[in-house]
User: What shape does this take?
Amino acid sequence: QSVLTQPPSASGTPGQRVTISCSGSSSNIESNTVGWYQQLPGAAPKFLIYGNNQRPSGVPDRFSGSKSGTSASLAISGLQSEDEADYYCAVWDDSLNGVVFGGGTKLTVL
Amino acid sequence: EVQLVESGGDLVQPGGSLRLSCAASGFTFNNYWMTWVRQAPGQGLEWVANIKEDGSEKHYVDSVKGRFTISRDNAKNSMYLQMSSLRAEDTAVYYCARGGRQRYEYWGQGALVTVSS
Assistant: This one.
C-alpha cells in the first residue's frame, strides 16, 4: 500500500485529454515538489515532470503537471498511441525522510 | 552523453549478500546526489536509498535499513549498494538514477537481483 494513491488504470482515445491523479498528505505533496515518470513496457522510467509542473527539455508540451494542496495531477493532451505506458508520481516525504512513489497508473490508448 | 550502467545483479540465496555498482559518465559525478530505485516483478517503483554528493548524508527506505548500505567513490565516478541478509521480497530490478529527491533526470538500464533458494 503506497503512501501516494494513484488510480491503477486510465484510458482514452487518440486525441483526447486524460488526467492522472496522485493523492498524498501534508508530509509529502503539500510540503514538497512532485515529479512524474513514464515507464514504457520493458524499459527504465523516463523523467517527465519535475517541480510540480516543469518539463525537462525534450518532453512534449502535451504533458503538464499541477499541484493543489495534498494532491497532484498529470495531464496528457492530444493522446497518442505511444503514450500507452505506466505513469508514476514521486515526492519527498518529511515524515519518512525518504522519497515515495505512487503505486502507478497504467494508461491504455483505446 | 550521460550514462549510468548498473552491474552486479545475480541470483543469491536468502540470507546472502550482494553488491551492486553503478558506473556514471558524461557528467560531473561529484556534483549530484545519486539514488537507487527498485521494481519487483510486475510491481511499481520503490525508492531504496540516496546519497549526497560528498557521501556525508544518506537516506534509506525502512524495509532495507540495517541491511543495505549505499556508498559512492567520486574518484571512480561510481555508486554502490551493498545488500546483506537478503530476502525473497528484495527480488527486483535495481535502477540507479541521478538525483536526490523527486528529480531523477537519468536512469540506468537496471540490474536484476533474484533472491531464491
